[in-house]
Amino acid sequence: MRPATSSTTSWSAAAAMAAVMAIGGGAAAAQSLPDGENGRYSMTPIAEGVLRLDTRTGTVSTCTKNAAGWACYAVPDERSALDAEIGRLQAEVEKLKAQIAAGPTVSGKVDEALPKSDPLKKAEPKVSEGDRGIEIPLPSDQDVDRVMSFLEKAWRRLIDMANRVQKDVSGKI
């Protein structure tokens, strides 16, 4: 075999470079194809025009033809709104956790003790010690007077109604 000369070496280097360019050029050509030919968009016909799905980003658009030509508008994405609300709530939770970790914050006067019972709460029935019976509080005189007044008015109206019915019946017979 004869020793390699500079021209033989340059020819083999050129051939190797051409092979690399041919292999790499095919990949570069595939990447330089328009997005529609590379399978990026998926089109589905709908009544108004075409529904376009971007397979790389997941964005959905509606494409319609008008006087100026075709126009595509992104469909509102519920997911982005939900993600924004989740982020807001997570930030609020973190803020509340930080407030709790900082310690209790009490506003107002705390030197006096709070009342032990609710002044508007009605008294519960008491149990007597000897016979373990339940004591039921009786109504006051004012409560009894109100009930009696109601019953008297109802009785008078009933008597008046009976008298009117009797007059109507006796007048027709």
Task: Kindly describe this structure.
The protein is 48% helix and 16% strand. By secondary structure, the chain is an alpha+beta fold. The strands form two sheets. A four-stranded antiparallel sheet has the order 1-2-3-4, with no helix packed on it. Strands 5-6 form a two-stranded antiparallel sheet. The radius of gyration is 47 Å and the shape is flat. The N and C termini lie far apart (149 Å). Residues 1-33 have low confidence and may be disordered.
Indicate the overall shape.
Answer: flat
Number of strand elements: 6
Pairing-aware structural class of the strands and helices? alpha+beta
In what order do the strands lie side by side in the largest sheet?
1-2-3-4
How much β-strand is present in the residues?
Answer: 15-25%
Gap between N and C termini: 149 Å
| Number of helices, counting only DSSP H or I runs of 4 residues or more | 3
Which parts are unreliable, with pLDDT below 50 for 5 consecutive residues or more?
A: 1-33
**Largest sheet features:** 4 strands, antiparallel
Determine the mean pLDDT.
75
Radius of gyration: 47 Å
Q: Helical amount among residues, as a percent range?
A: 40-55%
Order of helices and strands: HEEEEHEEH
